[in-house]
Amino acid sequence: MYEGETYIDSGSGGNEFMIGLLVGTAVGAAVGLLLAPKSGAELRHQIADYSEKFRRRAGETYERASETVNDLAQRGREAVQRGREAVEQTTADAMSSGRTTPRSVDTH
Length: 108
Fold this sequence. Notes:
Blueprint lengths: L12 H23 L4 H57 L12
Helix pairs in contact: 1-2
């Protein structure tokens, strides 16, 4: 009998958390910058710095998520292939033992 790998479906909770964390960080930084007493030039420079940091972090998060999705897709393809091979092997074993049709199951 084929024993497949078991995966727990965690949903997209991790992705939603990361998006919320990034958005919350950006909003908090923006509010902090706007409420801090600074000159216009200082404020623009600081906003530009925070924007660049946010863009970089968002890109890194996207890359990690993309790698995870690609890894999961590859693992899924491999699991499907193992399943196909198991079915083919079971069919070949049944054919070599002289059985051409599945055994009937008594339901009474």
